[in-house]
Amino acid sequence: MSGARTVSDSLRPVRIWLYGLAAFVLLILVVGGITRLTESGLSITSWRPVSGIIPPLTEAEWHAEFEAYKQIPQYSVINSWMSLADFKLIFFWEWLHRVLGRVLGLLFIVPFAVFLVQKRLPRSLAWPLFGLFLLGGFQGFLGWWMVSSGLSELTSVSQYRLAAHLCAAALLFLALLYVPRRITPGPVTGRIERRDFWIAGVLLVLLFIQIGAGAFVAGLDAGMGYNTWPLMDGALIPQGLGVMEPLWRNFFENALTVQFNHRMLAYGIVAYIAVAIWLKARAGRLNGAHEWLGRIGVGVLAQVGLGIATLLMAVPISLAVAHQAVAFLLAGMVVLYIADMQRAARI
Question: Which of 67, 131, 177, 217 lies at a 20 to 30 A Cα distance from 77?
Answer without folding.
Answer: 217
